[in-house]
Amino acid sequence: MHGDRIWEELDTFLAQTFTKEDGTKLKIICTCMDEQGHFTNAVRKFCKARFHRKVFAIRGSNNSAAAYIQKPKKGNREKAYVFEIGVDTGKSWLMDRLKLEKPGPGYCHFPLEQGKGYNEKYFKGLTSEKKVLRYKMGRPYFAWELKDKGEHKRNEPLDCRNYATAAIEITQLPLKKPEEKKTAAAGAATVRRRKKRKSNGGIL
Known about the structure:
Order of helices and strands: HEEEHEEHHEEHH
Mean pLDDT: 87
Structural class: alpha/beta
Number of strands: 7
Strand content: 15-25%
Strand order of the largest sheet: 3-4-5
Radius of gyration: 21 Å
Helix content: 25-40%
Largest sheet: 3 strands, parallel
Low-confidence stretches: 197-204
Distance between the termini: 58 Å
């Protein structure tokens, strides 16, 4: 991640529009970047300049019982807003959702087509950790640890899924079925028409 080129390429990628096979246009509405590591200030600077595009710096909380999304703070050199994420809470949510076998609230949908990246390696990474009970100074607490150092040693899919869920929670994106969206849109249009009639004496 040395030099400006990688940041320019990342900015271009995040700003692009994706087109589905049916022609539907999609844009990235929120991005969470882990600021912990060797490039903390660089991440904060990058995110601060793109705050209006909902590009946020995040960091994992050391408190295993921390709330998933906490109020952002900007007490840092770059004065960038940083969200602290209760990553252990997020992992618990995800594992509970993965147990759901029927589509519905909380059910996880994954592409079935080959070449999408959702292969055996991905799912081993997604389920690479387990929740264990530990004790510190005689007090019990739960922690997430790698299942083993072999085939489950790569946990990037789990972290990425966790951060993507955090992005949804931060933006409070309403997830609705297509028919629910149409109903909501029709209801909103009706309200707008009523307000217009009220404001102009009922003349359309």
